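Record type: monomer structure entry
Structure origin: computed from sequence
Chain ID: A
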Amino acid sequence: MDRVLSLLGLAKKAGLLEAGEEPVGTAARARDVRLILLAEDAAENTVRRAGHFAQAGQCLCASVPATKEELGRAVGRASCAMLALTDVGFASAVAEKLAQLDPARYGSLSERLSVKAARAAERKRARQEQRVRTGKTAVRRKKRRDA
């Protein structure tokens, strides 16, 4: 579980994680969220709201085997019942670590997120190839050198 928590801390430092109900809800409604994580001791109302956020943002939601205090400590807060990862790479990495801990519970989550991460990487690669074909990459480099 320590590896999952350290990944969450890295995501927070990178600005790719929202912590708390209001920021998670806002990001989910904007469809920026890839994975919502809940503490194992989250209140029923929080779990219900997280489910609604996941439906609204068309993202995945999972409960992790960590308390609110442990999740909060990982992201620099006193306690946190709900987190949202906004980057598909971090979400996939967290789901993979969770699947290593409990394959029966998190295996399908890890598979779904790894497929999404692969699709995102393919789209990024296709955009890069398009830029190279049209010469936009060279123009950007030239602009940076001239600036």
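Annotation 1: The chain has a mean pLDDT of 89.
Annotation 2: The radius of gyration is 17 Å.
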